[in-house]
C-alpha cells in the first residue's frame, strides 16, 4: 500500500510586497486567511487580488492552511 503523503502546515511565510518587493515575515494563523497586510517597509496596504483566496496564496511561495486543508482532502494528503 502506498504511503500516505504528509504535508506540513507552514508556521510562517514570507510575504512579498508587490509595491517595494520587500520580503516580510508573517505568522500563519490556522483559521485565518488574511485578505490584506500592511507592508512594514513601505506602508503599502496590500490587498488580496480576487483571483486568490488570500494574501498568503497570492504573495508568498506557500499556501495558507485553508487551501492546504482543501488540497489534502482532495488528494489524500495527511496534514501535520
Ligand atoms: Zn512594501
Ligand atoms: Zn489562501
How would you describe the shape?
Answer: elongated
Total helices: the number is 2
Q: The biggest beta sheet, please?
A: 2 strands, parallel
Number of domains: 1
Strand order of the largest sheet: 1-6
Distance between the termini: 21 Å
- The total count of strands amounts to 6
The overall average pLDDT, rounded, is 92
Helical amount:
10-25%
* Radius of gyration (Å): 14 Å
Our estimate of the beta-strand percent is 25-35%
Structural class: alpha+beta
User: Low-confidence segments, ≥5 residues, pLDDT <50?
Assistant: none
Keywords:
80 residues, alpha+beta, two-stranded antiparallel ribbon, elongated, binds zinc ion
Task: Describe this entry's structure for a reader.
There is one protein chain. By secondary structure, the protein is of the alpha+beta class. It has one domain (6-79). Helix content is 20%, strand content 25%. The protein is built from two helices and six strands. It has helices spanning 55-59, 65-75, and strands spanning 6-7, 12-16, 23-27, 36-38, 45-47, 78-79. The strands form three sheets. The chain has a two-stranded parallel sheet. Strand 2 (12-16) and strand 3 form a beta hairpin. The longest helix has 11 residues, at 65-75. It is elongated. The two termini are 21 Å apart. The mean pLDDT is 92. The structure holds zinc ion (ZN) (2 copies). One zinc ion (ZN) is lined by residues 33, 53-54, 56-57, 64, 66-67.
Amino acid at each position: 500500500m502506498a504511503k500516505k503523503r504528509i504535508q506540513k502546515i507552514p508556521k510562517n511565510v514570507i510575504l512579498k510586497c508587490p509595491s517595494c518587493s520587500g520580503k516580510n515575515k508573517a505568522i500563519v494563523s490556522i483559521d485565518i486567511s488574511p485578505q490584506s497586510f500592511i507592508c512594514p517597509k513601505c506602508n503599502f496596504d496590500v490587498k488580496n487580488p480576487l483571483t486568490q483566496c488570500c494574501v498568503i496564496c497570492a504573495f508568498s511561495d506557500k499556501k495558507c492552511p485553508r487551501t492546504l486543508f482543501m488540497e489534502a482532502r482532495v488528494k489524500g494528503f495527511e496534514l501535520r
